[in-house]
Prior knowledge:
The structure holds two protein chains of two kinds. Chain A contains twelve helices and no strands. By secondary structure, chain A is mostly helical. Chain A has one domain. Chain A is globular. The two termini of chain A are 35 Å apart. Chain B is α/β, with parallel strands linked by helices. In chain B, strand 8 and strand 9 form a beta hairpin. Classes of the chains: A mainly alpha, B alpha/beta. The interface between A and B is medium-sized, with 29 and 35 residues.
Amino acid sequence: MKKYLSFFRIRFLNSLQYRAAAYAGMATQFFWGGMLVLMYRAFYRADAAAFPMAFQQTASYVWLQQAFLWLFMTWGYDNEIFAQITQGTIAYELARPIPVYSMWFLKQAANRSAGAFLRCIPVLTVSFLLPKPYGLMLPDSIQTLLLFLMTLVLGFFTMLAFQMLAYILVFYTMSPSGVRMVMATAGEFLSGGLIPIPFMPQKMQDILTLTPFAAMQNLPLRVYIGDIAGGELANAVILQLFWLAALLFVGNLWIRRALRRVVVQGG
Amino acid sequence: MIELNHISKTFRIAKRNAGMKEAVKALFRKEYTEIHALQDISFSIGKGEMVGYIGPNGAGKSSTIKVMSGILTPDSGECRIDGLVPWKNRKEHVRRIGVVFGQRSQLWWDVPVIDSMELLRDIYEVEPARYCRNLDMLAQMLELGEILRTPARQLSLGQRMRCEIAASLIHSPKILFLDEPTIGLDAVSKIAVRDFIRQLNAEQKTTVILTTHDMQDIEALTQRILLIGKGRILLDGSLEQLKARNSAVRTLTVEFSGGDFVPVEGEGIHTVQLRSGHGVFAVDTRILSVSKAIEQLSAHAEITDLSVAGISAEELVVSLYEEFQI
């Protein structure tokens, strides 16, 4: 925990070092979120009955997504880690008294939560203040809020554990670009980043619900807006826990194999 | 303290000839060559020793360091450092060692060095009191001062290297591995780094193992030299012993005019360097006396200036490389 805080600190300081990037990031989130809400408004005007969620729910989904973008974006990778693998600075990581998996997991957790921390406060505040159907609604009960926070954390860890596999894959491919491309486009779509999963065809929803992708941003955001509750929610949380455990297990096993073939060449 | 027994490591390296056709062919079938990076390496190093590990590029210096620091798993052989096998008890082992890879950086690029130090403090779980003491000591010995508050990317190479060394010592390791710590540094920084290492070894009794191509490093720092070539340990001894081995050899540096020198290769003499007007020759005085050698040389051309010198560490190494044909 202390190590996590320490990474969080350095990453937070790092992002403060680049203030312009932080401001620009926030502006992008507002702009992007606003565009999406307006776009959905147009669709809802055409036929509100065709959507499985009320407009306010959809708008809230969009704002939450923007606020916690840094936790769940599938295209966000730490170039430092890729560079460590391809350029051999991993030698230093291996000379530390923490397993590499844990170190990278911590680093990622710190990177993303530090980024999210900086951005979520203004986005959440402003979207709460927006007029009724366009802004972020309040959860219907304290219980929902707590469930949201729980699934948010679990979903975040699932995301990280999934992403770790992408890093480990680079030990074999030695080039991150392909891995990134696939993860960014496929992962973004499948996890409900592009459009919420409930907007997809029923068949696809049925399949996706079983995959780890549904356990990432999809679950906490839908818990918050009250789109998922009761028995369905319980099942989803169990599945989320299963995927988290499975991904952690596979990642740890795989990295041990990958590290055995690590050769840091030259110098 | 450090025990290596019959350590071997082989790498497979993909190779192909130049050209499009070959590249396409390699898509389907890759050819590999095996490189024996380490072959049957054995040595032992005692507590508080300072050892220079030398050898030409690709000889296996860094590989040995990586094996000893738990980064590389050898194919066969045993290694015990302070009772631990580095690649098996990695976690406990790395707590007791510090490593500097001269060609890579462990500092966070964008934040002041002091932030990296604090992160390392937490990674190694150093108690605050000891951390402060170590940092004070390192800052003073390496003259870090203001440098600590500068982002790593804005440091000069010499400043950065001093910080790298400080970073690898923040958890007071018993053994310090330095892989080319003076690479690319200017004379002043080199001397600062050397002084520090010497002081560290003397005061803290830290065992230091250092690889380098800089013979002045070796001369200034180490009592003991390990020479590695083509993955094998070729020599193990003190610098004095090695020099004594070659003490019969004198270097003749000759300036001459008129006539082109043919490279002289004869009994007890061989040409080290030759260009117009200037020649360097090694003379083995056990076979050929210096005066005879001069006589031989003056038969070829008009000598205008001449100096005779014993062997320097630099030449010693060159002659060792030649002797072992590596």
